[in-house]
Write the structure tokens for this entry.
Amino acid sequence: MEILQKVSDSLLGLKNKKPLVHHITNYVTVNDCANITLAIGASPVMADDIGEVEEMVSFASSLVLNIGTLNSRSIESMVAVGKKAKARGIPIVFDPVGVGATSLRTATAKRIIEEVGPSVIRGNMSEMKILAGLNADIKGVDSIADEVDGEKVARQLSKKLGCVIAITGKQDVIAQGDRVCLIDNGHPILSQVTGTGCMATSLIACFCGASEDWFLGAVSGVMTMGLAGELAQQSLQAGEGIGTFRARLFDAVWAMTPEIMRKGGSITNE
Amino acid sequence: MEILQKVSDSLLGLKNKKPLVHHITNYVTVNDCANITLAIGASPVMADDIGEVEEMVSFASSLVLNIGTLNSRSIESMVAVGKKAKARGIPIVFDPVGVGATSLRTATAKRIIEEVGPSVIRGNMSEMKILAGLNADIKGVDSIADEVDGEKVARQLSKKLGCVIAITGKQDVIAQGDRVCLIDNGHPILSQVTGTGCMATSLIACFCGASEDWFLGAVSGVMTMGLAGELAQQSLQAGEGIGTFRARLFDAVWAMTPEIMRKGGSITNE
Amino acid sequence: MEILQKVSDSLLGLKNKKPLVHHITNYVTVNDCANITLAIGASPVMADDIGEVEEMVSFASSLVLNIGTLNSRSIESMVAVGKKAKARGIPIVFDPVGVGATSLRTATAKRIIEEVGPSVIRGNMSEMKILAGLNADIKGVDSIADEVDGEKVARQLSKKLGCVIAITGKQDVIAQGDRVCLIDNGHPILSQVTGTGCMATSLIACFCGASEDWFLGAVSGVMTMGLAGELAQQSLQAGEGIGTFRARLFDAVWAMTPEIMRKGGSITNE
């Protein structure tokens, strides 16, 4: 079956199951993550206290771990809830925000990879190069790495870590071993809004929470974000800018259908 | 006096007094709670450190306690600030988000009820059934309980806890002992945006902070949210969805007038 | 060179350098601060754990310290990161939210001023009067002080603390010793949205991160916020209100150009 058909079917599966997605994420974009989860048809829960995370994740269909504003308290909760999710066999989507920028972030990412074992890792090229042990220029949490060799980095990292790798950027690359998809949806304006990376991670968790094929879940989540970005940008009238774009981005995810996916999706399935 | 007349008068009282509403709430929807408080004409303050909450609440006209992202630090602050508010005699509006989902939430809700004694509790039917000691299916923080017997649950819980009970759902039920109102405003789209429950709680605190009748404050806050949701939904044009709806929801609360309330309000006063 | 020309040139400098602005700020408006930073053309990073803040700020071009939801953990991080920023010589923009409302806030502001030494302090008139040791009525975090003598307060406080003082209100006053600017941009609707003060602080840090003249940076940041507020308000159609205004505010900052600044700016350079 063609990849776009599979992706559009996965949207139906998501809307049918309405998976509960447990997040431990940053306080900058947490509201956006909750709203994008609702917009696509899943249900968000945000809980981060060590005294309840293992119990809360026992209801969930998938888990997001995002280290955007990590702290000593949330790191322990992430590891504990990640282990519980792993024991339950639900997908764990890890967003290593700013890995490489500080040693705390690098050590935490390493710890989550080793002690938890994420199912999917989504990040930008700078972050992924750091995880792959390659040199990368880092400045804060935004990527400044060039994007050549994305496919090679994704493939190698996927084999090394035994999980799905999703590198988002001008062209997105999703890899699971030698299974690779390139996605050409998206628009540069997405990088001018905070949280579009975090929201892509949440969308991946929404799709993975309703599918057994986590590679497909990652492709579906990333493509949904890119396509919604394109549609939101195209809707802008004269005088409208980034604030209006942000509202329309949620409109577009909320209105996403299998037909829109099949018509607008741009995936190269290698 | 007819209930809709009282509700619309309470809006004038709120705008005249501009009450300061102290919140300890979750980091997912805290920005929405601050903005809805401003939109209706009150003034929000968010402070949660144990070192200042009792001093901060001494200026406030009402207090919101919301356990959406509770943690060991904020729980102690909630109890301390709640006791101080109680001693001052100002209304305390409690939102037991996700009670029943984890034992930490259930124990915290019980502790706030016993040690603080809220003036108003607002929640969905699942949460309220848990508080009432009834069986309820819980999955995360969204309600999946059916809504029959809402009136009975509200009335019993109000008598048991000695406070106003506001159960929001398809039909909202507000009870204070045998005083009961049913509200038929609202629209299903409200459940597709995060924070509409939290914002209803904030609105209740805004109205209660300007009135001595906390039952009326609860009715006014819940009706305002429902009616604003209807008006925002009706304003949507082709192609507009949940992101635009969210902006319009704030527009509608901001534009609320006694006239709009009397014309659009749908309250059955039993 | 005329002040409006300098201000509009500073926007070009900002867009050219794209400074990284490290924030430790409150969880109420942090998303707005990140988005306004992106909208003007800078890059935000929010990190507050004591284990990484000094390392993170070593990449940054400027630092924001905002005590809106201070806590015992974040206060220590603010002092540590502030000292590091000071040692690096990058500008530190301090927003003493609610100083005077609680002794914790007053003590923390005093500590940041003494131990860190901010480059710019932005606040409302109540907050600035407290810092200046004058009597001021405080109720929560919004200003209720009258605004006469703003110029005198700003000038004295600037000399006392050896930094740039930006007092925002109906008329904004920026002072660095005897160098004073009065800004008449802005609109009352800005006070009906949470975070417009915090965002003005972030914009100051964006401009200061790309300029060696921090007085000019403060003037540019405050004027940008006020002018964007005017333009956003003017764009409102019938039936649109505060929610739509908020989206347009980001549109207006994103669309800001040197020409718009020179045409719409209203600065008295004393």
